[in-house]
Amino acid sequence: MPEGVKKAVNPDMATTTTETRSTRRLEPDGTGDGAPVRVRIGWLKELWARWLSNTALGGAFGHFASRTIALPQLRRLAGGEIPWTPLRKSLSDSTVVVISTGGVHLRSDRSFKLNSDSTFRVIPNNAQPADLAISHQAYDRTDALRDINLVFPIERLRELEAERVIGRLTENHYGFGLMGSARRLMPAIKEVARRISESGVDLALLVPA
Fold it and tell me: Could you tell me which residues come within 8 angstroms of residue 160 by beta carbon, excluding any fewer than 6 positions away?
């Protein structure tokens, strides 16, 4: 197991609490010992996620649901124009962090609640695919379990770091799960923003599920 801090935010207390070991059942993805594991969500939910991800009708439904549920919340919270910040240095000098909403976390961490979870997980930069798990029920995880880089591109970024395309990767990256309330998610977002600011990050790569 990699070394690193494994913490999550408790949105009700607005404090940081150490995560406990996972009690949700983990299943191998069937691609070998070096692959991530899936968190069991039930076969009906798996079929639902595959329908959403892999069919035109499911994709259209997902797009409609996101516009109906998510966009009104984001508009209320934004309160004006988004303050975009231009990158003021070259990529080759920049420190990069990954923030994924694909339900990625360390196997040893508590799994995300599948219906709604406003916490986050810290993923150390030295984590390997076999150290990771995915707990999310809103998309088909089949391909992501074969190649974790689809939802958490840590290996591709390490290659870019080695080739000096980017300056360096930060010590810790962050994973979020499924959350229906943008307002309840804000304490965790602010905590992650504080952490990456204090760690000297120049560029955050946001990877959706």
Answer: 166
Q: 39 - beta bridge partners? A: 26
**C-beta neighbour count of 199 within 10 angstroms:** 12
State how far the Cα of 104 lies from the Cα of 37, in Å rounded to an integer: 10
Three-state DSSP class for 198? helix
pTM exceeds 0.85, yes or no: no
* All residues at 6 or more sequence positions from 121 whose CB lies less than 8 Å from its CB, including other chains: 6, 7, 8, 19, 104, 105, 106, 109, 112, 174, 175, 176
Find the radius of gyration of the CA atoms of the chain. Answer: 17
CA distance 126 to 204: 18
The pLDDT-based confidence of 132 (bands split at 50, 70, 90) is very high
Over residues 113-142, mean pLDDT = 89
